[in-house]
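Input/output pair, single chain:
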Amino acid sequence: QVQLVESGGGWVQPGGPLRLSCAASGSISSIITMGWYRQALGKQRQLVVNITSDGSTTYADSVKGRLAISRDNAKKTVYLHLNSLRPEDTAVYYCHAEARDYLDGYWGQGTQVTVSS
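Output:
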């Protein structure tokens, strides 16, 4: 079992930065990838960014050029910094982790990010 806890969500001004972190606990030795998804109201959940243990990343087109991600493999914590936020970035952001023994992955409870003035 892996537990994921997101932090850093809330209200953000348009054009401002978003800083999120996700800390994993439990069977953290089984984690191989971590990342972020988001789900806007009335929309499907979609990938924002994913990072593997060796640092390889996959980004959504909508955030390329605006997003930075880093991963602490020892602590099993992943950090996200999204710049130049716009209203369409408003969504619930979910941390995700893929584990060797549970490829469906684990999910955090989500953190609401609202971009408005």
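DSSP finds no helices and eleven strands in the chain. The mean pLDDT is 94.
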